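Work Package 3 (structural annotation) set out to generate three-dimensional models for the target panel prioritized at the project kickoff. During this period the team completed the workflow that converts sequence records into C-alpha cells, so that structures can be stored uniformly alongside our sequence database. As a representative example, we reproduce one entry of 262 residues exactly as it appears in the project archive.
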Amino acid sequence: MRKCAFICLFGLAALFSVAVSPAAAQSATPRPAARPRPAAPAPVHTALSGSFIVSQLGHAVGTAEFRLAPGASGYDSTSAVRVSMQGLNYALSKNEQLDPAHHLAHVMLSATVNDQAVNVTGKPDAGQFLLNISANGRSTTTRLAGHAGSVFLPDFDPGALQIMLALAEAQNGRDLWAIIPKQAGSVEAVQLATYPDENGTLDGTPVTVHHLVATIAHTDTDLFAGSDNQLLQAELPQQGFSLIRKGFVLTPPKKPGALPQQ
C-alpha cells in the first residue's frame, strides 16, 4: 500500500495620531472662531470570506475557509481547515489580529496532525517577531527577523494567501515575507511573479482571473485571483494539492502536479 509522505510546513501596527493645533492667540479685535478642520476619512474596511475545497489530484479530501473582517484596531482574521485522507488527518484553527495595513499584530494557531497537537503563538516584539511553538511535548521560543510585510503561512490556509494578496497589492509585490513555524521557526522571502490573465467562471458567471506565482524557499505556489483581488484558487507546494473556491472553475483547468514516486 502506497504511503502518503507528508511534511506540514506551518507557514507562511500602524498607529495614527491626531495633531491638535493650539488656538490662535487673541488680539484686541475679536475674530470669528475658526471652523474645525474636517477629520480625515477613516480607511474603508470591508469584510472578506471564502469557502474552499481542498483537493488532491482532482479529488476532494477536505475543506478550508477564512473570514477577514474589521476589528477594533484593524482586521480580525480567522481560518479553519480540515483534511482527511489516507496518511493524513489534519485540522487547523487560526486567529489573527492585523493592523489597518494588514500587518500582523498577533496570531494564535491550534492544529492536529495525525493526532499530534500543535499550538503556536506569535507577535512582533522589539523589532523582531517572537514565535512560540508547542508540539510533541516540546516547546520552543524563537526570535525571528521582523518585517512589516510578513504573512503567517500555515498549510492549506486560504486566509493566509488572501492576506498575501492584499499586501502584494499595497506594496507592489515587494518586501513580502512568510513566517514558517517549522521546527524552531523561520522567516522566508516571498518572490512574486505576474503571469498573463486567464479565464474562469464563478457561480456560472465568466470572470477574468489574475495569475501570480509566489516563490517561497525555492518552492512555487500558483495563485489565481479575481479582479477584486479575492483568492479563487491556489496550487499548493505540496505536490498534487489545490485549494479551489466553491463555485469557481478555471478554464481550462490547471493540472495538479503529480505525487512523487514512492
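Residues 6 and 238 are 8 Å apart (CA to CA).
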